[in-house]
Amino acid sequence: QVQLVESGGGLVQAGGSLRLSCAVSGRTFSWYWAAWFRQAPGKERMFVADISGGGDILNYGTSVKGRFTISRDNANNMVYLQMDSLKPEDTALYYCTSGPRMQYTYWGRGTQVTVSA
After folding, report:
1. Is 90 exceeded by the pLDDT of residue 1?
2. Are 72 and 78 contacting, i.e. CB atoms less than 8 angstroms apart?
3. What pLDDT sits at residue 8?
4. Is the pLDDT reported for residue 108 higher than 90?
5. 3-class state of residue 89 by DSSP
6. What are the residues whose beta carbons fall under 8 Å from the beta carbon of 109, sequence distance 6 or more?
7. 78 to 3, 5, 32, 87, 108: CA distances (angstroms)
8. What gap in Å lies between CA 64 and CA 59, rounded to an integer?
C-alpha cells in the first residue's frame, strides 16, 4: 500500500522560508510524478507544484512560481518543497501526492504552514 508522510510545516513570518519533506513508500517511486497541493480553510485544494519521475520536468502554480522549488531524491523516496519569500496567503495545509500526472489517488495527511504578517 502506498503511504506518504509530510513534515516540515510550521509557523513563520512573512518573507521567511520553510522546507517541506515527504517520504513515500509502497511503490517504485521513480516511475511516478510527485506533487504538492495545498488547501486553505474554506477553499478548494489547489495545485502548488509537481515534478516528473526523473526530475527533469517541473511545473508550478502561478501564485508560487519564482518563490517555491520542488525537488526529489529517488534513491531515498523523498520529495521536497523549498518555500521562500513566504506570504500570509501561503497559509494552508500542504499535501504530498504521487502517481500518474494529475491522476493522484494517494495522499498524505498534510503538514500545516502558517505565515504571519
Report:
1. no
2. yes
3. 98
4. yes
5. helix
6. 5, 6, 95
7. 12, 10, 12, 25, 13
8. 10
pLDDT of residue 28: 86
- Let me know: does 17 contact 86? Beta carbons within 8 Å: yes
Q: How many CB atoms lie within 10 A of CB 45?
A: 15
The residues with which 77 forms a beta bridge, in sequence order, are none
Mean pLDDT of all residues belonging to the chain? 96
Cell of 25: 513508500
Return the HEC string of 1-69.
Answer: CCEEEEECCEEEECCCCEEEEEEEECCCHHHCEEEEEEECCCCCCEEEEEECCCCCCEEECCCCCCCEE
Asked if residues 13 and 115 have their Cβ atoms less than 8 Å apart, the reply is yes
Q: List 47's β-bridge partners, or say none.
A: 37
Amino acid at 20: L
Using one digit for the tens of pLDDT, what is the confidence trace for 19-75?
Answer: 999 999 988 889 999 999 999 999 999 999 999 999 999 999 999 999 999 999 999
Look up residue 97 and give its three cell numbers: 501526492
